[in-house]
Amino acid sequence: MKSTPNHVTREYTGIVLERIKHLPPGGKMGDLPAHLQHESFVRKGDKKTGGPNMRLLRLEMDKPALTVTAYIFNKFVHPKEDRHLTPREAACLQDFPIDYEFKGTLGQVHQQIGNAVPVKLGKAIAHEVAKYFERQNIRGEILLASYFCGAGGLDLGFEQASNECLQFKTGFTTDIEKWAEKTINHNRPQWNFHRADIRTLAPELVKESLGCFPQVIIGGPPCQPFSVAGKQKATKDPLGTLYRDYIRHIDFLKPEIVVLENVYGLAQVKSVNMILEIYKSFEKIGYKVIHKELMAADYGTPQKRRRLIFVAAKNLQYFQFPQPTHCEFENLFGIPLYEGAGNAITRLPQPVIKAIRCIQVRD
Prior knowledge:
Layout: E1 8-9, H1 14-21, E2 42-44, E3 47-49, E4 57-58, E5 76-77, H2 87-93, H3 106-115, H4 119-134, E6 140-147, H5 153-160, E7 166-175, H6 178-187, E8 193-195, H7 203-210, E9 216-219, H8 242-253, E10 257-263, H9 274-284, E11 288-295, E12 306-313, H10 341-345, E13 352-353
């Protein structure tokens, strides 16, 4: 029997195990007995400071997880078992199919999963893009080009939003990371992946690869310069200006509609008005643009992940943002409650336990 990909754990020992055992559902570092709290856990009134171990949190069965990130996979503890999550379980919180295998080192796998757009959020957006075309009596195959695709979460959302009348076909994907190339080529070789730096990638080569102009362009320029978890250097960081190259490609390829996604922190950058910058950039090349912050849990993802979504089009009156399909509290309208993180990951088979020898686990 074939094992579930990226679903490997290990046995935990020492103080790491003791901390995990003492965590109640929803419990975090501050809920532990004082002798088990990490030495970096410093209380300053209501403010707490510390390192990565501060973020320890046991998931709950019927509540969505907080945001899955690329670098703190020691954050989440399994809701029932005394261990941290496997990469597959984290991918489950991002809605990836169980057979979608991530390639690369463990760190690269973590980064791919943590940086991804939740698939169900992508699907909700894609459903509205489909309606955009249907309202204009456009049917059949819709060709799509994807930039900064990473592991392909947004692309999978568009793939899953296809229906009998309209089918999204990803004909071109690109990212600068080698691990993204391996993951996409393994799972979706038909997506025609090109590993390239967008700053030197000629849009003419994109058109040549596709054989025509794409009708949809999607992408999420690097979010680290805008994240509230970072220093928010914005355009002072070279990565923070890559959206301009994205606009340059859009200007040449002239798709019907464009989706740009990023962290919600982009709207909170103090050094520059990024919202206004993006609006001006699209308007300069003849597109109308709107934006909205969307919560992944509102669309069935077992995770409270917020993303800022920009949609640009020539005929923007045909587009509207998706209405939530789930909600946090009981309601009179019969809307399903948020998907619980524990309920989602406990549907997976048991992980493989990998023996780790000659490695000292850090406190």
